[in-house]
Design a protein that fits this description.
The protein is α/β, with parallel strands linked by helices. The protein has a domain at 8-119 and 149-262: 4-Layer Sandwich (Metallo-beta-lactamase, Chain A). 37% of the residues lie in helices and 17% in strands. The chain has 10 helices and 14 strands. The protein has helices spanning 56-68, 86-89, 92-99, 107-118, 121-135, 139-146, 223-235, 253-278, 284-290, 302-321; strands at 14-15, 20-26, 34-40, 47-49, 78-80, 102-106, 159-161, 174-178, 187-191, 196-200, 241-244, 282-283, 325-328, 339-342. The strands form 3 sheets. Strands 1-2-3-4-5-6-7 form a 7-stranded mixed beta sheet. It has a 4-stranded mixed beta sheet with strand order 8-9-10-11, with no helix packed on it. Helix 6 (139-146) packs across helix 10, helix 7 packs antiparallel against helix 8 and helix 8 packs across helix 10.
Length: 344
């Protein structure tokens, strides 16, 4: 698919009709470039879908972008966060401080935010190191990933959402559609009075969201399985206009959702073939290093290798749930590493 994504320097606040505006907010130092924040007009003040990265440049872009649409950030009624990631929830707390707005988030992500805000950094670093070691990462990679910069957790929400909940916007019908996968509490938002769907990171027009397992060796969750089910759930809503958080607005959410699902099914098939060809149990790190990524494994910095391993782990977990692969205890038990092989 040819990319229609324009650089942030070419982005402007845009009236997309029906009382909805898009406001691009930069993500400094990130190849995604920006997050598209949406402002929905209402008689009681605008409601934002996401808020952007917590950075002074992002704050100015949000404040001034809203002003360019005729809205005042001090009059924002609420912020609905599609998921807890920093490029979506980072500025929600500052918007609340400026305007008194409420912040709403799905209860699953709200629980994660609470855990993140209570956890001590040293304990988190130790946990990440253990996760990487069990996956088969080397000492240098472990050091690089565990010491990398991580943004502060976002502000805790005032309101928690469940699937089907209506958002508090006078005169509009905005319904919560729980779409776990990218995060446990990711939500899309169906603007029922306009046949539009705010898709967050769940359905994007040119790229696919990161689906990972953290820690890599968890067996109590299946995020890729959740994601695939969520794609079908969104597809069943019909060919709605998609208002995503990145890239560009596009038509027919259902068609794109099914295409993303097919992409992951192909990836799962390739992963089974990779393990069969190996002929021996492999660690998560070894598997990730043999998978196909947009850049070669040797060219991936340690942080991106860590994310690739998480994505490999999510695909392995989905295959494990389907009975296609299994974990094995083969190898030196002192290594305490997780290995996978094709289920016989």
């Amino acid at each position: 698919m040819k990319s229609l994504r324009r650089p942030y320097s070419e982005q402007r606040p845009t009236d997309i009709g029906g009382g909805v505006w898009s406001v691009p907010v930069p993500i400094p130092g990130n190849p995604l470039g920006y997050t598209l924040i949406y402002a929905i007009e209402s008689p009681a003040g605008p409601v934002l879908v996401d808020a952007g990265w917590n950075h002074p440049d992002a704050w100015l872009a949000l404040r001034d972008g809203l002003a360019a649409t005729g809205m005042d950030i001090r009059e924002v009624r609420g912020v609905v966060v599609t998921h807890f990631h920093a490029d979506h929830a980072g500025l929600a707390g500052q918007v609340r401080q400026e305007s008194g707005a409420w912040i709403a988030m799905h209860e699953a992500d709200a629980e994660l935010v609470g855990t993140m805000r209570e956890a001590e950094e040293d304990a988190q670093r130790t946990e990440r190191a253990g996760m990487l070691r069990r996956a088969g990462a080397g000492a240098a990679e472990i050091e690089a990933v565990t010491t990398a910069y991580r943004p502060e957790p976002p502000a805790a929400p005032d309101r928690t959402l469940r699937d089907g909940d209506m958002i508090d916007i006078p005169g509009r019908r905005l319904r919560t559609v729980w779409t776990p996968g990218h995060t446990p509490g990711h939500v899309c938002l169906h603007l029922e009075d306009a046949d539009r769907l705010f898709t967050g990171d769940h359905v994007l027009p040119g790229i696919t969201p990161h689906i990972g397992v953290y820690p890599y060796d968890r067996t109590d969750m299946d995020p890729l399985g959740d994601f695939l089910a969520s794609l079908e759930k969104v597809a069943e809503l019909g060919p709605l206009e998609a208002l995503p958080a990145h890239e560009w607005i596009f038509q027919d959410t259902a068609e794109r959702a099914r295409a993303i699902g097919a992409h992951h099914e192909e990836k799962l098939t390739s992963l089974v073939a990779l393990l069969a060809e190996a002929g021996e149990p492999l660690t998560i790190w070894e598997i990730a290093s043999r998978m196909t990524w947009k850049r070669s494994w040797d060219d991936l910095p340690s942080m991106l290798r860590g994310m690739a391993a998480a994505e490999a782990a999510a695909h392995l977990r989905a295959l494990e749930v389907r009975g296609r692969v299994r974990r094995t205890a083969e190898g030196d038990p002192k290594e305490d590493m997780v290995r996978f092989t094709v289920h016989s």
